[in-house]
Every structure is written in structure tokens, then in C-alpha cells.
Amino acid sequence: MNALSACTLLYVEDEPALRSEMTTFLAMHCARVIPAAGGRQALELAADNAIDLVMTDIRMPEMDGLSLSKRLLESNPGLPIVLYTAFTEVQSLIRGIELGVAGFVQKPTNAAKLVEVLEKAALPVVQRRQISELSRQLQNAVSCLAKVGGHAPAPLAAETGAPEHNPLPAPEPPEALPLSMSAIEKWALRRALDAAGGKRMVAARLLGMNYYTFKRHLVRHGLADDDES
Question: How far apart are CA 205 and CA 175, in angstroms?
Fold first, then answer.
């Protein structure tokens, strides 16, 4: 699944025919598309909905795309915004860069390029969401083990005939890791193994995985050999 397909996009365009056409196209690539006819309506919709990213025209009556971007970023710093503009509008491009927008889409639109730019803007959103979920799972794992004195519950430990985990150096805290899903996932696997006392079946349960899925992740990150049972 690509990142864009997991995101809700706020699309802002004042021209009705183009807004309708683009909304239909974007809906094929996004989890949800929320169309807005202008900046003021976009602010209202952003306040009432969980928005993952925004695509807006620059030239609009009442409130242009740059003013809208500034308002949105004031209330939601880090919100990815893609500006839909002619590349001849140099001052608008410079101002967009100063505001910290995520990208630009040139008029007239090339469909493949549009999806590419939006996908790039959506990727950090989905990564943060996945990291947050991993963090939640790890917190649950630590809490579960704390309730039983730091040891794996006997019924779970007794279920597995899987090989013991070879002790590894203590995992670095996530703050010390580069912000990549691969590094965070490897840290989560090692943390779960350590928390479960090396019992793979228990560690898999703590992360909400079945044993074979957990094993595939271990092999992929070099934490187990493919030929181990």
C-alpha cells in the first residue's frame, strides 16, 4: 500500500469544473478527498476533520493559497501542503518555500507527477503514524510485563517451543536512532525480545503478531537465521 492511499487530502480549488474533475481523480489515490471551494471553507473543513495533507491552488478570491497555507501551518505546524501553481509565479514559489510547504505541482497538471509529489508529501505522515503505533505497542508490552514482575506470563512462555533468543546489547532508545521505519522496526523487535526474556512467541504476542510474521521480521532485520525453526 502506498502512503497516499492511507491519507485524507483537503483539496482547495475555486474553479468548480476543475475542482470536480480533480476530486474524482484524487479519490482514486487517497483514502478520502475533502474538496473546498476557497480558503475560508478550507479552514472550516480543516477544523472539523482530521486532515493529513493539503493541496491548494494559489490564485483564489478572498483568500489565496499562500494566506491559507500560513493559517493552516499556524494551527497545525508540520501539516504537508502542496501548492498548485504556474512555475512562472516566482514570488509565490519563493513565499511557499519560506512558509515550508511540502511541494509544488505545476499547471497544467501531469497526472503521474501530481501523484508523485503528493505521495512524497504523504510518506512522513504515514511513517509518523506507524512509529506512533509501534510506540503504543511497546508501551503496552512493558506495562504487561511490569504487572507480572518483569517476567513473561507462564501460560504464554509454555506455549512456545521456539528457540531462545541470543542475548543482544541493550537497544538504543528511539531518540538515538535515525528516523527511518527500518531502524524503528528493528528497535521495536529487539525491545520486545528483551522485554519477553528472549521468548520469541511471547515477544510476538506483545507486538500483536503471530509467531511466523514475527519470525519473518527477525530474519529481515538480521536478528535470526532463515533456517531456524
Answer: 25
Helix, coil or strand: residue 99:
helix
pLDDT given at position 81: 94
Q: How many whole angstroms separate alpha carbon 101 and alpha carbon 108?
A: 20
CA–CA distance, 30 with 126 (Å, rounded to integer) = 12
CATH number of 4-126: 3.40.50.2300
One-letter amino acid identity for 88? T
Say if residues 10 and 36 touch (Cβ distance below 8 Å): yes
Domain ranges of the chain: 4-126, 148-220
pLDDT digits (tens, 9 = 90+) for 28-73: 999 999 999 999 999 999 999 999 999 999 989 889 999 999 999 9
CA 88 to the chain's CA centroid: 32
Using CA atoms, how far apart are residues 228 and 163, in angstroms rounded to an integer? Answer: 8
17: cell is 469544473
Distance CA 224, CA 166 (A): 9
Confidence band for 148, pLDDT divided at 50, 70 and 90: very low
pTM above 0.70, yes or no: no
Residues 5 and 29 sit within 8 Å (Cβ to Cβ): yes
For cell 504487572, what's the residue?
A: 147
Is the Cα dihedral 107, 113, 116, 120 positive or negative?
negative
